[in-house]
């Protein structure tokens, strides 16, 4: 039998007890869990398929498709990113991270970083915050009794701090649009003929102004923009019938290329019938597009 004798301190001694450590192994060894975490992160790196490197004129070159570039933007959260430009000074970045979410009424999380001395890059989790801040165009940040002017720009993959962006947000309206086309899918599809839609105004969402629909889109200032948009509507039966007739027309027209006989007459009949059908069931309508912006464009640079 082994008896362990532990000496007790005197009753009057209030020295706290000391924990005895094992000093037999002075070297620190990582735990098994830590080793697994390191190995898993290492395996993850090696699982990524790297792009091949090409040499063009002696320089290593990596090629990415635009789809891949867009995927990178989504992965990094900059598909909903806004640039704030301070041309006349600004508080330090630490203070801006505190005051910007409050003063710009940002509801969700946002990541604020500094691109360049005058430019901040803000990434938004909520599309609502992204549209709201970008729509503001310009404003002031108040700090320590001072006001610092800023302008907002849409971040693009071609962003250059030395150049002004060619994109802006603007409202477009569709007067006298049929009420059934106020549905979100149809309205956004129609607006996409102008440019990428990002939001509907409140009256359009609540259906309180059936005379006109308004959509906010990201507009390229250097592009030409349509004044009218055409749309067509078909029933499923009409579309199926037209598809059958077109297919029949293709078969007949291919079979009578070098012949002029009764089949040739059949070809003419099919062509005329198909044309009449298209004119009868295709309902072409034009939608007028009124475009304006709450942003004063080309009024000088800050």
TrEMBL record:
Record's protein name: DUF4283 domain-containing protein
Annotated DUF4283 domain residues: 78-161
PANTHER family per the UniProt record, alphabetical: GLYCINE-RICH CELL WALL STRUCTURAL PROTEIN 1.8-LIKE (PTHR31286), PEROXIDASE (PTHR31286:SF104)
A Pfam family hit: DUF4283
Source organism: Solanum pinnatisectum (tansyleaf nightshade)
Source species, domain of life: Eukaryota
